[in-house]
Design brief:
globular; five-stranded mixed β-sheet; single chain
Length: 509
């Protein structure tokens, strides 16, 4: 809290200095030798009165800003003369006497150096094993085998170092996170190679915001499938509280989404949800105020959600006939929560208060009484579908039961879920043809037969290895389009409470 208040006071004074075009690194504030100069008493008294501070506090804050300005000028001069860049490092998960903490410092390096050199410097400074470190700047993982300059690292850039091992007991498992991400990517690329082949078991249906399957050219479908698969694997990691690994997978997905055409991304809201998930990881890692792309990502999410659902869910209502508003509400709630947190760290306290109050209202409307969930489950329904149904029906148990029954009939076309899925895959998303086929077949659709021949021989070691990789890839990817909406809201409630408490301690009038 002390650090936050100090930074807030520094910002307020810096804003006043900028407005008055006062340059602390010049005379009379700084002498020719760089030593502390004279600050007019009139300025000190005026700032103290305007900001409600003691004269001594204003003097200390002005000197801190002067020192920072001189340091920044020195860093810029060194870069121009010697080509040595100064980077602002933030290392998460550093072990201290008080436990795991965030470490912030600056480091010098030539931008012609590759990513592995910077990783070595971080490892030496933080005493974190080099194979447990991943570096991120502007939402991109810094690669080992390319220069920092090629990867858009500049003098003064902020770089976050994510520690992949957070406890000694888990060190062995988490040392494998980087290789897990690489293996996941390889399996996801293998999956895309199976598209439009005989491997329907691994086909992923891609739909627009209204749920209508998209008929895409093969290459576009492959690109989008790879991005969506990496995103879903990241979600699975996030559910397991493996935040660092989730973030790495999300950033891999982000790279693939960036290869898709803009009009394709506008047809689906997957990229907007990914941006939201990335910023959520930043928050969980206590770095939402440090990464410059967090605000940009939230802006992209908001634009997409407004385009997809409308400011008051009017587009969603038009498409789904008044159902499914909880889907948009859950997304907007998390968006407003993260925007409120961002505004707080940008010292825009009034904006933060408005956004957090809005998120609180949306959160309350989404919360469901645990006793009601138990009551709906007595009808034989699962916890997740009970929670989602009660959310959709504003806590009305009977309506929630009817909602689940009706949904099981949109979802499975009145037949078993797996049979409905097979039929939709067989007819490439054409619901009418899928229903006709299910009726004619009595509700049973056999898996698509494999072509005979050596290429389909499961005893082939290479093919067996590929199938194992694909099975592992798909094992924790949900086929339920509402899976990501099944939020217990516990973490959201805790974060909301934390930031509202901090806001309450500030004068936001």
């Amino acid at each position: 809290m002390d650090d936050y208040f100090t930074e807030r006071q520094l910002k307020l004074i810096r804003d006043k200095l900028n407005a008055e075009k006062i340059k602390l690194w010049l005379a009379p504030y700084t002498s020719e030798s760089g030593e502390k100069g004279d600050v007019p008493k009139e300025l000190i008294d005026r700032y103290a009165k305007d900001l409600g501070l003691a004269d001594t506090e204003v003097v200390e804050l002005l000197e801190s800003l002067r020192q920072r300005a001189l340091q920044k000028l020195a860093e810029r001069d060194k870069f121009q003369k010697e080509g040595i860049a100064t980077l602002k490092m933030i290392v998460t998960g550093c072990q201290t006497e008080e436990g795991l903490r965030k470490q912030a410092y600056t480091t010098e390096i030539q931008l012609s150096s590759d990513g592995s050199e910077l990783r070595k410097k971080v490892a030496q400074k933080s005493s974190v094993p080099i194979d447990q470190i991943k570096l991120i700047t502007c939402g991109r993982v810094i690669k080992d085998n390319a220069s920092l300059q090629e990867q858009n690292v500049k003098n003064g850039s902020k770089v976050m170092a994510v520690r992949l091992s957070v406890a000694e007991a888990e060190a062995h498992r988490q040392q494998k996170q980087a290789s897990n991400v690489a293996r996941t990517r390889e399996a996801a690329e293998l999956l895309t190679s199976k598209i439009d082949s005989e491997e329907d078991d691994f086909d992923i249906q891609i739909a627009d915001q209204s749920g209508k399957p998209l008929q895409l050219p093969l290459e576009e479908k492959k690109a989008l499938t790879l991005a969506m698969t990496l995103h879903e694997k990241g979600r699975a990691s996030l559910k397991n509280k493996e935040v660092s690994q989730a973030l790495l997978l999300f950033l891999e997905a982000d790279t693939e989404f960036s290869k898709c055409k803009a009009e394709l991304l506008n047809a689906v809201d997957n990229y907007a949800v990914l941006c939201l998930d990335i910023v959520w990881c930043y928050l969980c890692l206590k770095n939402v105020d440090q990464l410059p792309d967090a605000e940009w990502r939230l802006e992209q999410s908001e634009k997409c959600f407004l385009r997809s659902y409308g400011a008051n869910n009017e587009r969603l209502t038009a498409v789904k006939g008044g159902t499914g508003s909880e889907q948009a509400q859950a997304l907007f709630m998390r968006l407003h929560l993260l925007q409120g947190v961002m505004a707080f760290h940008q010292h825009r306290v009034k904006v933060a208060a408005e956004l957090l109050n809005q998120a609180e209202k949306e959160l309350k409307s989404l919360q469901v009484d645990e006793n009601l969930i138990t009551e709906v489950m007595t009808f034989g329904f699962k916890e997740k579908e009970s929670r989602l149904a009660l959310r959709a029906c504003k806590g009305d148990v009977q309506q929630a039961v009817d909602h689940i029954i009706n949904r099981r009939k949109l979802t499975a076309l009145g037949f078993e879920l797996e049979m409905g899925r097979r039929s939709l895959l067989k007819h490439k998303g054409d619901v009418e043809k899928a229903v006709d086929d299910l009726i004619r077949s009595g509700g049973f659709i056999a898996p698509k037969a494999s072509k005979p021949g050596p290429s389909r021989n499961r005893e082939n070691p290479q093919e067996k290895k590929e199938m194992e990789a694909l099975d592992n890839l798909m094992s924790d990817i949900s086929r339920d389009e509402e899976d990501y909406l099944d939020l217990t809201l516990k973490e959201e409630s805790e974060i909301l409470c934390e930031y509202k408490t901090m806001l309450a301690s500030l004068d936001v009038s």
